[in-house]
Amino acid sequence: MTETSRRGLILINTGPGKGKTTAALGTALRAAGNGMRVLILQFLKGSWHYGELDAISALGAALGTPEDPAIVIRQMGRGFVKVGGAETDPEDLRMVQDAWNDAEQAILAGDWDLVILDEINYAIGYKMLDPEKVAEVLRQKPEMVHVILTGRNAHPTLVELADTVTEMREAKHAYQKGILAQRGIEF
Length: 187
Ligand code: ATP
Ligand code: MG
What we know:
This protein is α/β, with parallel strands linked by helices. It contains six helices and six strands. The structure holds adenosine-5'-triphosphate (ATP) and magnesium ion. Residues 16-22, 119, 150, 152, 168, 170, 173, 175, 181, 186 line the site of adenosine-5'-triphosphate.
């Protein structure tokens, strides 16, 4: 096997600019179109209803079956977190632990060709999840499984381990002009 033969990659979309999650969703489309099975676990997210939830549930059923969709997306949080040491709400911590347990199982089982851990870098950055645990599972993952991790401030250990790391740079963002999040673009 050479470095160029088929193998699962670890990718990270990080940095302060917009596009980390949407790039991961784009990759999910690309993978699903190639007949691959995709699982998207969203850490911390939960209270907002994102457009991708409906699009993916329709597409997942169409490409697979309603009982066994080809793409699955699950929100594993409640959309807001109080952060910082003692401030961390135990309920949020528990949800992150549950999300991580599911992620670990999904990656190691090899049932999915691509596993996307959306916003996991925030959970690690907020010290709700140990980056060493994540690194350990990524080191042990089945060879053909691809994993994408998103969120700002990716941990250096994970950056080191990853094959492809993209830093989104903010050149401009509408928010700076006071323009609020727009349906279809932001959510
Ligand atoms: P998107 O989901 O649009 O790809 P993202 O995953 O890169 O964004 P997150 O850090 O997950 O960014 O933040 C999610 C929300 O914050 C999105 O609504 C996004 O538009 C908004 N956002 C992202 N980057 C910026 C920025 N530089 N300034 C203001 N808002 C931002
Ligand atoms: Mg995001």
